[in-house]
């Protein structure tokens, strides 16, 4: 498998190096071009690199053939179809895999019991988050709040929603443009530890910033 991937990647690099001499703007390549772009957007270069490399290689080979005057229409059609099929396979292979999201942990954010009121001990962590967001002025983030499993699902979801909004309000009040922020409560749906222990429940009660693209 590694050998086949290396061959496909080598072919892709060799053909892409000749791209200025290829007819890559041909409308005949529109479907393949879109399929490859959709697969890339789905993360195919990471989760299905072999299929994506094969799709790109077929695409460039078809472009090369078109530059030659499209003297082999059947072969060109086959290459384009291969590019489309491989790209679609790559996209489908990645469709069930969640996209990786950068998480900025806000460890040290605390609230009053059963409340969205921030405790004074949270200020240092929140001020550090403000500094980070000002330094990374090009990113947008979701303030995500989580609870442990104590209480009902509905109560925990509502509590986490209020807590996420409370943290977002703090960030806005300290100079972060509200247009860069959103807030969402996840309740007890995304635990990171066992809720049967005190330590586990403490880890599950957390707030984080999720970097959005």
Automatic annotation (TrEMBL):
Chain segments carrying region Disordered: 183-207
Domain OmpA-like: 98-213
Keywords: Cell outer membrane, Membrane, Signal
Positions with biased composition (Basic and acidic residues): 196-207
TM helices/strands, residue ranges: none
N-terminal signal peptide: 1-19
GO cellular component term, pick one: cell outer membrane
Keyword Membrane appears in the UniProt entry: yes
Database matches in Pfam families: OmpA
Location of the protein in the cell: Cell outer membrane
PANTHER family: LIPOPROTEIN YIAD-RELATED, STATOR ELEMENT OF FLAGELLAR MOTOR COMPLEX
Name of the protein in question: OmpA family protein
UniProt organism field: Mariprofundus erugo
Classification lineage: Bacteria, Pseudomonadati, Pseudomonadota, Candidatius Mariprofundia, Mariprofundales
């Amino acid at each position: 498998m590694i050998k086949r991937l290396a061959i496909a990647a080598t072919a892709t690099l060799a053909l892409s190096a000749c791209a200025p001499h290829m007819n890559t703007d041909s409308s005949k390549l529109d479907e393949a071009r879109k399929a490859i772009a959709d697969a890339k957007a789905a993360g195919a270069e990471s989760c299905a690199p072999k299929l994506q490399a094969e799709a790109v290689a077929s695409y460039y080979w078809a472009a090369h053939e078109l530059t030659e005057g499209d003297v082999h229409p059947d072969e060109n059609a086959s290459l384009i179809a291969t590019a489309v099929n491989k790209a679609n396979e790559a996209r489908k292979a990645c469709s069930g895999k969640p996209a990786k999201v950068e998480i900025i942990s806000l460890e040290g954010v605390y609230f009053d019991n059963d409340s969205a009121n921030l405790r004074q001990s949270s200020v240092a962590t929140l001020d550090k988050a403000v500094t980070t967001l000002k330094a990374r002025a090009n990113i947008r983030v979701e303030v995500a709040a989580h609870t442990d499993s104590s209480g009902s699902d509905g109560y925990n979801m509502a509590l986490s929603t209020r807590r996420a909004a409370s943290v977002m309000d703090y960030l806005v009040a300290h100079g972060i443009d509200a247009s860069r922020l959103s807030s969402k409560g996840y309740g007890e749906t995304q635990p990171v530890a066992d809720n049967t222990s005190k330590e586990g429940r403490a880890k599950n009660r957390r707030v984080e910033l999720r970097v959005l693209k």
